[in-house]
Specification:
The chain is mainly beta. The chain is 0% helix and 51% strand. The chain is built from no helices and 11 strands. The protein is globular and about 40 Å long. The termini are far apart.
Amino acid sequence: QVQLVESGGGLVQPGGSLRLSCVASGLTFSWYDMGWFRQAPGKEREFVTTINRYGDSTYYVDSVKGRFTVSRDNAKNEVYLQMNSLKPEDTAVYYCARRGRDDYDHWGQGTQVTVSS
């Protein structure tokens, strides 16, 4: 079955950086666009970024443009999220997800990112 496992979260000071990773198994990874989402305490899950199956097209929510970069390595079945200039409002559980035919249909368990001094 499809499994997505995130890692790389942690506690970082404002202005710091983190790199999240998501390793996929149980699927032909290069066939699928992938996305990153996040959910802050008391808020709904929100879209952060997506990358197409080839890794040459990306899209970001306005709040992270210029600070976050999504990338992927199809040979390793991994997708990454480089997060720079982190702000307290970036604090959330971050999830990677596979985009199926119509929507995101498989999700990881999430990794906690906390931005605090």
